[in-house]
Amino acid sequence: MNPSLANFILSKTPKSILHPAPTMNTAIPLNTGATIPALGLGTWQSAPGEVKKAVVHAIEAGYRHIDCAFCYQNEDEVGEALQDVISRGIVKREDLFITSKLWCTFHTRVEEGLQKSLDLLKTPYVDLYLMHWPVPMNPKGNHPLFPKLEDGSRDIDHSTTHVQTWKNLEKLIQTHPERVKAIGVANYSVKYLEKLLAQATIVPAANQIENHPLLPQQEVVDFCKAKGIHITAYSPLGSTGSPLFKDEAVNEVAKKHNVGPGTVLLSYHLARNSSVLAKSVTPARIDENRKLIVLDAEDMQKLESIHKNGITRFVYPPFGVNCGFPDKPDGIDLSG
Ligand SMILES: NC(=O)c1ccc[n+]([C@@H]2O[C@H](COP(=O)([O-])OP(=O)(O)OC[C@H]3O[C@@H](n4cnc5c(N)ncnc54)[C@H](OP(=O)(O)O)[C@@H]3O)[C@@H](O)[C@H]2O)c1
């Protein structure tokens, strides 16, 4: 086609056609050939008695991606919700994208860990199974999820490594492809990814990390992009009691687009080609979080300047020192 004619057509084409607004179910490709819906409902800290209603409401409102984990201790209720919506014909299982995670005390028992989640979730398979943290913990310690040594420090399993856990997961997906469609990791830094990739035969489909304008983790995002590993952002709103809703830059961008700050915080990840998880048990917020917009370069620049005032992390790993993770400040006990 004549270049000037092509330019003329482009100049007359509405922006909404050239850059269509993302929706919560915009399908983002994974390295497996499958896709992941752009927005998922988070379920960490969704209390018993609340999480079933939240998942049912979300799916009725159009969400198709639900993020779960054995460690959240609520997968049974999420399973009740899934059973409810599927039995009422609201959705088919194959139209949902369900993620679960292998907990640290199950690193040497991956098949058992997966089966426990499948039973609780009342589903024959998960779409994505993630190693929740790259730190194995003692499977025979003094607590099934959070074992501690006598001195109060975490009971880490030093007889194995996260790389061995990955090999266990590779074997699991090869032997049970009907139970797990893709495997990935969570909370991996570049250092951990390099160690894993040096020995992996399957490149993780995803790395789920804490990600928001106060913790952009650009080096991890760039590394994963180069290796074909999809990023899913967790705690995008800044988790419980977040300061991000009051952030000046976030509110300026929100005002410019006539949307709430939550929309800006979630849309930030779509501009980076990541999927994003938003947790809520409040129906009005579950509805509100569906709204996503296209942020332009100026918006992103503004949001990217926020972390320069000092990086803030909201989720600290449930391990003591010497695991290569930031130490959690006193008084915080989070295990997302
Ligand atoms: N892989 C990991 O290690 C890991 C770690 C952390 C999180 N995650 C996953 O990521 C999900 C999301 O992260 P998160 O739960 O830490 O935090 P988040 O989604 O950033 O924030 C959740 C908090 O924001 C509130 N909220 C939600 N929508 C809102 C809105 N529109 N306006 C105002 N407040 C709103 C929620 O309250 P209400 O519920 O009361 O409405 C809740 O207190 C988790 O649920 C979990 O599935 C994974």
From TrEMBL:
<dbReference type="GO" id="GO:0016491">
    <property type="term" value="F:oxidoreductase activity"/>
</dbReference>
<dbReference type="InterPro" id="IPR018170">
    <property type="entry name" value="Aldo/ket_reductase_CS"/>
</dbReference>
<feature type="site" description="Lowers pKa of active site Tyr">
    <location>
        <position position="101"/>
    </location>
</feature>
<dbReference type="InterPro" id="IPR020471">
    <property type="entry name" value="AKR"/>
</dbReference>
<feature type="binding site">
    <location>
        <position position="132"/>
    </location>
    <ligand>
        <name>substrate</name>
    </ligand>
</feature>
<feature type="domain" description="NADP-dependent oxidoreductase">
    <location>
        <begin position="39"/>
        <end position="306"/>
    </location>
</feature>
<feature type="active site" description="Proton donor">
    <location>
        <position position="72"/>
    </location>
</feature>
<comment type="similarity">
    <text>Belongs to the aldo/keto reductase family.</text>
</comment>
<dbReference type="InterPro" id="IPR036812">
    <property type="entry name" value="NAD(P)_OxRdtase_dom_sf"/>
</dbReference>
<keyword id="KW-0560">Oxidoreductase</keyword>
<dbReference type="InterPro" id="IPR023210">
    <property type="entry name" value="NADP_OxRdtase_dom"/>
</dbReference>
<dbReference type="Pfam" id="PF00248">
    <property type="entry name" value="Aldo_ket_red"/>
</dbReference>
<protein>
    <submittedName>
        <fullName>Aldo/keto reductase</fullName>
    </submittedName>
</protein>
